[in-house]
Amino acid sequence: MNLDKYDKQILKIIQQKGRISNQELAEQISLSPAPCLRRVRQLEETGLIEGYVALLDARKLGLTLVSFIQISMDKHTPERFDKFENAIQSFSEVLECHLITGQSADYLLKVIVKDMDDFQQFLLNKLTRIDGVSGVHSSFVLKSPVHSTALPIV
């Protein structure tokens, strides 16, 4: 799909203000409301806009400990990876899971929990019980000077 300047502006704004009204969006990009709405619907229909979410304040929910966990698997088979990926999807603590290269680990997880006690429970009662997990290396986030959900639109 070829994106023109209006499409790009729509995508930039919607990433920052998902609940913006069509009227306000149209005004911000200097387009009348009807064509603006058509463009948004087209971006949704093509799958470029996958959905809309509410961003929550983790601290206000008591979720204060963020960690990145490198996971090593004992076997590098599609079946072993599939089982791991299926298991990890059921854990609400896991915000992201990436199959990676260039490290001694196979997966990189981003995990959020209340505190170190919750982390220990997650690690011992969930993560290390998945068949094939042979190594776990955890790093804890001290500060996040950059945190964004918006993708760069160029």
From TrEMBL:
<dbReference type="InterPro" id="IPR019887">
    <property type="entry name" value="Tscrpt_reg_AsnC/Lrp_C"/>
</dbReference>
<dbReference type="Pfam" id="PF13412">
    <property type="entry name" value="HTH_24"/>
</dbReference>
<dbReference type="InterPro" id="IPR000485">
    <property type="entry name" value="AsnC-type_HTH_dom"/>
</dbReference>
<feature type="domain" description="HTH asnC-type">
    <location>
        <begin position="3"/>
        <end position="64"/>
    </location>
</feature>
<protein>
    <submittedName>
        <fullName>Lrp/AsnC family transcriptional regulator</fullName>
    </submittedName>
</protein>
<dbReference type="InterPro" id="IPR011991">
    <property type="entry name" value="ArsR-like_HTH"/>
</dbReference>
<keyword id="KW-0238">DNA-binding</keyword>
<keyword id="KW-0805">Transcription regulation</keyword>
<dbReference type="InterPro" id="IPR019888">
    <property type="entry name" value="Tscrpt_reg_AsnC-like"/>
</dbReference>
<dbReference type="InterPro" id="IPR036390">
    <property type="entry name" value="WH_DNA-bd_sf"/>
</dbReference>
<keyword id="KW-0804">Transcription</keyword>
<dbReference type="InterPro" id="IPR011008">
    <property type="entry name" value="Dimeric_a/b-barrel"/>
</dbReference>
<dbReference type="Pfam" id="PF01037">
    <property type="entry name" value="AsnC_trans_reg"/>
</dbReference>
<dbReference type="InterPro" id="IPR036388">
    <property type="entry name" value="WH-like_DNA-bd_sf"/>
</dbReference>
